[in-house]
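Standup notes
- DV: blocked on the single-chain target, sequence here:
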Amino acid sequence: MDSARLDGQVNSLENFVLGDVHAQVGNTKARMGHADGSLKLTGISSYGSKRRKSRKLWTIFPFRDTLAQMQADRFFSSTRGRIVEELRRRGAASAVDLARTFGLSPNAIRQQLVVLERDGLVEERSVRRGPTKPTLEFSLTAAADRLFPQHYDRMLNAVLHEVREQDGSYGISRIFAGIAKRAAAKTRERIQTPGVEGRAAALTDMLRSGGVNAEYNLIEGGFELREHNCPYAAVVKEHPEVCSVIHQVLDDAVGGEHVQTESLATGGKECRFEVKA
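- DV (later): unblocked, structure below
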């Protein structure tokens, strides 16, 4: 075993982890004041610059995991943190919905939502639930996703880099073609009601089950699909082939013609599709 080479690899890995900790701490502190339950950390920089780096891999990851857990426990034990968790579970909810869940008044919930919206963690939109006047529903923004553990994106990026290195872009495209084929088959199985709305509802349900805050609106000759977040946003930047999945699902499972009018990957506020089915 080449110990010098191993030392170099461990150093690089530890620097990466420490850099990621700095980023996560910075992002979290930027979104939450200390009064909101964030953790004041003063020894992180000295850990990386003054202390001797460990040569044992198992001493690296527990440090980051412990730090992330301390931050999460502090924030998610607060009322705002519990609201964020509930919105992630439900996708979207009104102040009245949340008030019933937590046994608080709607006004008390609205006060917390105002702070979360100010900090860029939630957004509101008007939704018509029936014949009554529209209701304001709140959902998490992409920024709020970073409050939760985000390990899959780095791993997926590493795997895709390896595939691209070995098999080129063709290998990447073949992987996502297979994923899209299975996703389209699953969507077709969920289509219980014929017609445009049945297909739109089935597709939206499938996307929501995969962590996408999605909704649809009927338009003349079809429907409009809107995705307010993307679980793979960090991966799409380097591997745009990820986006091919939803396009193939629309072609194979929904049918008709579709056009994408807005994209998160190109700086839009959401991914939006108009489907003429």
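- Follow-up: Residues 1-65 have pLDDT under 50 and may be disordered.
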